[in-house]
Amino acid sequence: MADYLWLFVVAGGAILLGLAIAFGTARQRRLHPAEKRMQDEKVDRLYGKK
Hints:
Blueprint: H1 2-26, H2 33-47
């Protein structure tokens, strides 16, 4: 009986972690082209590429 409990705990933890990662990636917003340009300019300025 205790073996099944550990099976559910371990499997449930893996499933919850997978769901949390899927939820986080699904809610991630893409940058608009203007935002992407501004981000690229700031990164270039930070690393001295321009």
